[in-house]
Amino acid sequence: MSKQSRQFQVPDALANLYDFANTLDLRHFTRHGVPHQMHDELASTDDLAAWMAQRRLLPAGAKVTSAMLDTALALRIHLRDYLQSDPAERRTKSAVRALNAAISAFPLLAELGGEVGGRLQPTRDDALAGLSVLAAELYDGARDGSLDRLKMCAADECRRVFFDRSKPATRRWCMSTLCGNRIKTRAYRERQRGAD
Question: Which structural domain, as residue segments, surrounds residue 84?
Answer without folding.
Answer: 3-195
